[in-house]
Sequence to fold (624 residues):
Amino acid sequence: MPIEVTMPKLSDTMEEGKVLRWLKHVGDRVAPGDVLAEVETDKADMELEAYDEGVLAELRVEEGATVPVGAVIAVLAAPGEDVTAAPGENVTAAPAPAAPKPPAARAEGPRPTLVRRAEAPAPAAAPRPRASPLARRIAEEHGVDLATITGTGPGGRIIERDVRAAVAGAAAPAPSAAAPSGAKRIELGRMRRTTARRMAEAKRDVPHFYVTTEIAMDGVVRLKAELERLGGAWEGLTYTHLLLKATGLALRRVPEMNASLEGEGTLVVHEAVNVGLATAVDEGLLVPVVRACDATPLAELVRQVRELVERARSGRPGPDDLTGATFTLSNLGMYPVTAFAAVVNPPQAAILAVGAVREVPVVREGRVVPGAVMSVTLSCDHRIVDGALAGRFLRELKGLLEAPVALLV
Amino acid sequence: MAGCVEYGRALAWQEALVARRIAGGPDALLLLEHPPVYTLGRGADPRHLGRAAGGPVPVWRVGRGGEVTWHGPGQLVGYPVLGLMGLRRDVHWYLRRLEDVLIAALADVGVVAGRVAGRTGVWVAGRRKIASIGVAVRRWVTWHGFALNVSPDLSGFEAITPCGLAGVEMTSVAREGGPDDVGVVALRVLERLVGIFGYTGWRPLASGAPTEARL
Fold:
């Protein structure tokens, strides 16, 4: 089904935009992320990217023309789709569109090489939900009914990320039927069921062992308070951000902990330090991935994590948000949890479980004084991690958190 | 402060910074000067090049908004590479904030300037243009940026119709009674940018590079 590309709204105050230059021509294949055109508003030139996959069927607007926000400027067709067919029919057997013409004939304006009849009302019995070909394919692969998805693409169209979110999301829990025992029955959603399966596998296949340490957090508590006072980019700073940074740096120093088991005999030591952050969402547990934790400056981490968690919680994780983790962090410190041991996320080597920061009596220079302490437990895959390695990693982590100025790189 | 960086090299530098930001890296700011060069925005009318077309000074057409302009020694050029997705996904807002940064920095060095509605840039007395703005956005990451005349030889502007506006008088900080040291103004711009966009601070990166602040 043909997809319309419209002039995007790049600002609250933007009413129209100019198409400066087409970077794709009629007949070109287009993949999501490809730049279709450069559009201008005020003194800003923005690269307009495609959301969908397809073949560029039509360029509606000439280079240099100004159109209102929302106006259709181009049309994409599904690969092989014959745009002359009535809407609702996907004539996949049709030959590819006739010889593509780049919009070079400026004098006459771009000539569509195909005649669109998508304006005509659909004769189909049931209206097909508007969705991109890619979205349609993914939905089919996962057995998701497009009618249950709300589209967030242009014109309310269902696009790839909507389907991916639905796949990761839950089916609505069924209302509880009154069971004889008075128990409430809740159907587990897709996300919950996937998590359940993976957890069972992990516990079954991974020989876990656990190593705990307590970290003096007085320095971190002070640093956090000082940074929060600065406001600006430090607004919303949490212990999680500081822990992510410390974990990233510790992994950089003890790279064998930033590793995975491949097959049965190969240890893959990863180049990048990408830490998954176990996050509770309505439907269950998601683990968005914070990339380059070691190299990203702390202030930038605050921003990244905020965006990442927002996307995860709103049910719209980005395509790379949930992949590529080399290690996982799980923080239950917002609850009165002293310590806990998490389940390793295969094929990662380990997962770090962090409890609350507590005021407890500590011994300093032979005296008992109050101090802020946090317990962390590292759960490790004993096929690739030994106690000594776990000990080294925790020593680095403890060192970083107890002298936290190191986290401000 | 940075030395003179050839235009093409600065472009390559920006591309790298943009790619880094898209990949999750930090925001950054390049502050530098260029050897004499004319540039045209993607949608710029080449007729505004006037006598500069075919002359000895190189001409570049680049993917930024805006018309034709001149860069040269004595002019502070700034290329903020900022992730708007972490600030506000609104390009007009971004342009207005850039204007605010320059207006505030100019006030810091004793030059009273402001904006003119409908004429993006920074103006003295509403009619002498002291700074030009032309930005690009890729995946909500900004590049290109602004050019603030500190103490350049303004004759570079005479051959062209700057920003496509006929009869506009170009001016500079020095002309308006302010300092003629680009470095002094650069520092003020950097501090104002940090403040207005809400960064906590900045850190210089690789030595030997044009002054590049990682925000």
